[in-house]
Amino acid sequence: MRSHHLSVAFAALAFSTVAQSQAVPPANLASAPLIERSVLFGNPVRANARISPDGQWVSWTAPSNGVMNIWVAPAADPAKARVLTTETTRPIRQYFWAPNSRQVMFIQDKGGDENFLLYGVDVKTGKQTTLTPFEKTRVQIVGISNRVPNRILVGLNNRDPKWHDIHSLDLDSGKLTLVKEGTGFASAVADDNLNLRVMSRPNAAGGEDWFEVKGTTVADKPFVSFGIDDSQTTAAIGFRDDDRTMYMLDSRGRNTAALFARDMTTGKATLLAEDARADIDNVMANPKTGLIEAWSSNYLKADWRVLSPAVKDDIAFLDSKAKGAWSVVSRTLADDRWVVTTEPSDAPPAAWLYDRKAKSLTKMFVGRPALERKPLARMHPVEIASRDGKTLVSYLTLPPTSDPDGDGRPAAPVPMVLFVHGGPWARDDYGYAGTVQFLANRGYAVLQVNFRGSTGFGKAFVNAGNGAWGREMHDDLLDGVQWAVKNGVTTADKVAIMGGSYGGYATLAGLAFTPTAFACGVDIVGPSNLSTLLSTVPPYWESFRKQLIARMGDPDTEAGRAWLKERSPLFSADRIVRPLLIGQGANDPRVKQAESDQIVAAMQAKNIPVTYVLFPDEGHGFARPVNNIAFNAVTENFLARCLGGRAQPIGGDVRASTAKVPHGAEYAPGLADALK
Question: Where is the Peptidase S9 prolyl oligopeptidase catalytic domain (predicted)?
Answer without folding.
Answer: 435-645
